[in-house]
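So, can you check these tokens?
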Amino acid sequence: MRIGLYPGTFDPVTLGHTDIIQRAMALVDRLVIGVAINRDKGPLFSLEERVAMVQAECAAIVAVTGGEIVVHPFENLLIDCARDVGANIIIRGLRAVADFEYEFQMVGMNRALDASIETVFLMADARRQAIASKLVKEIARLGGDVSKFVTPPVRDALLRRYS
């Protein structure tokens, strides 16, 4: 069984994330969405809120595509999380060259820790390349329209948070 792990903070989950999730489903039998606790980033939404948002977005994807998606919060090393969930593939989305430089270093470190777990990069859809959770939060905080970047339920959560 091919089990993929797609990790991130998902603060909040964006249309860029869901694009990668949908395309990753074609590569694996089970996709685990690893929601990172990462206290260093100071997330806007709590872990529970982020997990709930990701679960809701994934339920809509599974309803259309079928397949199996599991949402799994984690706070340990990515490679340890991959082992914990039985993943043999780590899936990462790339938007720009700057993403690649960081991800290239991560792959090297992860391969040194466990060479049996491969990393697969999926390029963001051209329409989604500019989307970053950090920028979406900034636009929402300043009263801008984020409906091009997130689904209506996520937009509503952002509006409630910043109201």
